[in-house]
Amino acid sequence: MASSRSEDGALACNSVSRIKALDAAVINRIAAGEIIIHPSNALKEMLENSIDAGSSAIDIVVKNGGLKLLQITDNGHGISYDDLPILCERFTTSKLSAFEDLNSLSTYGFRGEALASISHIAHLTVTTRSRDSECAWKATYHDGKLVPSKPGYTADPRPIAGKQGTQILVEDLFFNVPSRLRAFRSSSDEFSRIIDVIGRYAIHTDGTAFSCKKHGESHPSLITSASALTVDKIRVIYGAGVANELVRVDVSPDKNFGLLGATGWVTNANYSSKKAYLPLFFINHRLVSCAPLKRALSTLYTAFLPKGSHAFIYLSLMIATDKLDVNIHPTKREVRFLNEEEIIQRICDEVHKSLGSADNSRLYKTQTLLADIAENDIINSDSSSRLKRTYENRMVRTDAKERKITTMLPRRSAKEMSPSILDTDGTRSISGDVEQLSHIAAADTLPKYDSLDRERAVIGLNSVKQLRIRVREAAHIGLTDLLANHSFVGLVDGKRRLAAVQHDVKLYLIDYGALSFELFYQIGLSDFGNFGIIQLDPPLSLQSLLEIASVTEATDGQTKILIDNLLAMRAMLMEYFSLDITESGELVSIPLLLKGYTPPLCKLPKFVYRLITNVDWTSEIDCFHSLLREVAIFYTPESLPKHIMPLEDGMLSPEICSEIEQQQQEVARSIEHIIFPTAGRRLIATQSLLSGVVEIANLPGLYRIFERC
């Protein structure tokens, strides 16, 4: 019934309208508007499908905040060709078969509305390949139906080349809803929403790597590793300020209330921010908002934080499925569960306990406006005063760039500082370890350092790329940050290869042998095929080197066979590793990985022996990996005795003792001035290095000890 208002304000009935059913296209567009409010909503639905597909890598490309283009690519199990015709129809899903299945859901998506809704308000293209398919299939959708991609083409999915997984391309989002399109303020705001959604799923999802970049840009705006720890992912997404102040929360199960357990990370009392981060709540691995839990935790933190400050909260709850209702919101944003008050109280109790038992002192940042006025600083009869001066002996050096006391000591000459000397032709002659190689080359001929200036070669080998990816996936962000911002304290033990470094207010012992190995391995990967050269003049005989190695290594008298095996690879060794070997079996050059640092030449015979016996020549990637390992082992500094004492029988002469002492000084100089600074700039610290780093002191802990004394 249609009505209008008369001049006197009374309602007048003009005509009677009949009730009728809306057109299907209108219904679907209204439903799509309830589910897809922002581009980030569309991305969230597609992210959940990719995670449900068992993907280990998910890549997102965004243009104009997702309104012009939104592309998500995964390497999951893909979509079967037979399912493509109904892929974008409403309520088509592989997760449910009966309503009762809602009580046992263990997946993200379940109602089959996401792709259907997107297809009604955008141009949708799906490219997918399942494990048992011989090729990939590309399909275009509009209003939930297959449509031709171009005029004159068939609507059926067409075969193309592609890898296993699925790529969903959404173009011109809201192109047919102009009122919604005009409501968006800026593309940067929408891109921030997208980054926020990806970051939340990246923190919670283990075993999946995420990356997101703007269309046309080469570097991702966000990237996380599949093997990264939760704290490291929080560090990448929310910054070191949050990650450094996290405490873990573990809530034990309580079957009486249907709570199967809860874990998470929250910031302690040292961290507070004026910016309010939305809490990250996952219930049964589903990203949700839970207003009662948010209010309870906010109230809890008021006892720890200043007024107007906020904490970072990430919690993952597991609740019995028969106590949970997941189907109450169009976007699956909210859930309801029984015994809500009891479960929230249990969680708040554990958070309060974690905050109270955190092993950190409460820190306050202060700024001194005026110095204290000392009684002996009164200089005028009218009691005027001056600012109190801070003397140098009360200052603590906290910046590695400040001058150290060692720089004030007298410098020794090049001959005294290093076992290397400068020849008249300006090249660097290496005399260290020559005594151990004296019967190979004549006494008046020494290996010579040589650096060749040549155009950098571009190496596009897949095997090298895969090895670099392995390093990135094994990265430990916290340890990388420690090395990048450390202050070198000193060499502690040359025999056990230990050095001390300071980071922030903590002191660490680091196994510089393991550090050097990882550094030179990564330098080998990054500079693969572009090494410098250390020329050996005259060349050294492989036969003689292997005879020296046979003292400690079993060659079984087959040195000729070993040399022949190495000669078969001489072209590859020269091209990629600057290892020049003549046809007659003489070593002409070895690779130069780091300018200013010379590998221990006493390890050269064993290096040649291990090149032949320890390198896996059967596959390209294993060959390069093992070769780089051997080069890194060769470059790693030798373990040296801490104290040198001449023997009474004359076996260790004073000259040898002096040479070893010079080697110790050279190693110490190289570690402090070459290896550790280079590691700070170039090393991606991996998980394997954690066992070689030990915290031995921290300033807050020392203060607590002094307070008890």
Q: What brief labels describe this structure?
A:
Heat Shock Protein 90, 709 residues, single chain, 20 helices, alpha+beta, six-stranded antiparallel beta sheet, 3 domains, Ribosomal Protein S5, domain 2
Q: Your description of this structure?
A:
- There is one protein chain.
- The protein is globular.
- A hairpin with a 4-residue loop joins strand 22 and strand 23.
- The protein is built from 20 helices and 28 strands.
- The chain is α+β, with helices and mostly antiparallel strands and 709 residues long.
- The protein is 32% helix and 20% strand.
- It folds into three domains: 24-224, Heat Shock Protein 90 (2-Layer Sandwich); 242-356, Ribosomal Protein S5, domain 2, CATH 3.30.230.10; 414-695, no CATH class.
- Helix 1 (24-35) crosses helix 3, helix 13 (512-526) packs across helix 18 (620-635) and helix 17 packs antiparallel against helix 18 (620-635).
- Strands 3, 4, 5, 6, 7, 8, 9, 10 and 11 form a nine-stranded mixed sheet that branches. It has a six-stranded antiparallel sheet with strand order 19-20-21-25-27-26. The chain has a five-stranded mixed sheet with strand order 12-13-16-14-15, with helices on both faces.
